[in-house]
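Problem statement: downstream parser choked on a complex file, so we are re-checking the raw output for the nicotinamide-adenine-dinucleotide run. The parser issue turned out to be on our end (a line-ending mismatch), but while we're here, posting the original submission so the record is complete.
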Amino acid sequence: MWNYYNPVEIIFGEKKFSSIESILENKKYIIVTHPEDIFKQYSDQLSNSPNPPLMIMTDVQPNPDYLDILTLLNKFSSIAQEVDHILAIGGGSVIDTAKALAAFKGDQTLLTDFIRNNQKPHVVDPISILAVPTTSGTSSELTCWATIWDKEKKKKFSLAHHSLYPLKAIIDPAIMLNKPRELTISTGLDALSHSMESIWNINANPISATHGIAGSKLIIENLPLLVEDLQNIKLRSNVARACIHAGLAFSNTKTAIAHNISYPITINHGVQHGIACSFSLPIVLRSMEGVNQEAESRLQKIFNDTINNSASKLESMLRKLNVPLNLNELQINKNEWDQIISDAFMGERGKNFLGNIDNFNKSVKVSNFFNS
Ligand SMILES: NC(=O)c1ccc[n+]([C@@H]2O[C@H](COP(=O)([O-])OP(=O)(O)OC[C@H]3O[C@@H](n4cnc5c(N)ncnc54)[C@H](O)[C@@H]3O)[C@@H](O)[C@H]2O)c1
Ligand SMILES: [Fe+2]
C-alpha cells in the first residue's frame, strides 16, 4: 500500500525560458535571483517586457541564512499582499529563499518563530512560485521544502509544507551551460544522492523507486562525461532530466542517512553540500547487502551488478570527480566522525534509512575509510 504525489507542472526543453513571458501575462510578480552578472540577462528580459516585475531581489547568498532572509522579508513586506507569483531564477538557494518569502509573505516574526523560537512554521495560503532552476542538483523546483541555515547557531532547518510545491518548474538545460566544473560536479552529485537516498528509504514505493533508479543511472552515465565537456547541451539535458527523476523520487521519500551525515560536515568544515552528501554513498550502498531484498534489487539495477561491485564502481566514479573518500581527505578526526555517525542515525533523515548502524560501521571498515 502506498501513495505517490507531486503536483508540479514540468516544462522542459532548451530555450523554454522564453515561455515565461506568456505565463506571467497579466500577473503581478517579483523576481528572486543570484547577484552575479550572468543572471541579469534573465531579469533584464522581463524588465524590458510589457509586464515588468514589481521588484527584483538579487541579494541571495549560497546556503541561505536566517539573518539574510529576515532582511529580504523586510524588503518584501510592502508589496507582499499584491503579488501573484514569485519567480525564482537560480539554484537551490534562490528557490528555497523564494519559498521562505512565499510562506511568510514579508512577516519577519513568522520566520523568527520558526528558526529561533522552536515553533512549527506558520504557513497559510503561500504565494505561488514559478521556479527556473539554474543548477541541476537540489530539485527544489519539485519539492515542498526549503533548507534555511542558521549559521550563527550552526543549525539547519527544513521549512516544509504541502502548499510549498512550486506551481510550475521551467527547466531549460541551456541555462545550465554556464555552470563551472566544480559546481557541475557538486550539484550533479547532490542529484545522485537524492536518487540513491530515495531507494534505501523506509518511505520508498514502486514509483519513487523507478524515478530513483532512472535518476541514478542518468547521473552515473552522463556526469563524468559532462565534466569533461561542459558546453555539451545533450549531456546537460541528460543531467537536468536526472535531476527531475531525483526530485520526483525524493519529494515522496525525503532523504536518508547520507544527508544526515552531511549536515555537520557542511556546517563545521565548509564542504559543499553535494560533496558532503555523496562521499558516503559507496559506504551506505555496501552496507545494504542482505538488509532489504526489495531495496537491494532496486540498487542492483543501477549498476547491473552485485552490491559490492556496484559500491566499488561508484567509488571509482567519485574518485575521478575528486570527491574525498576517506577520513584523511575529509580532514575530520575519528572522534568527530564517531559523533557524526551516532547523531546521524538518531537524526530525522537517519531514521528514514532502511539499513542499520552495525552494517554501516562494518562497511566503513571494508571500504578502507580509515586508511589513507
Ligand atoms: N529544497 C530542497 O529540496 C533542497 C535539497 C537539497 C539542497 N538544498 C539546498 O540548496 C542549496 C544549494 O543549492 P545549489 O546547490 O543549487 O547551489 P546554490 O543555489 O547555492 O548556488 C551556488 C552558486 O552557484 C552559482 N550558480 C547557480 N547557477 C549557476 C549557473 N547556471 N551558472 C553559473 N553559476 C551558477 C550561484 O550564483 C551560487 O554562487 C543549499 O542551501 C542546500 O541545502 C535544498
Ligand atoms: Fe541534497
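For whoever reads this later: The mean pLDDT is 97.
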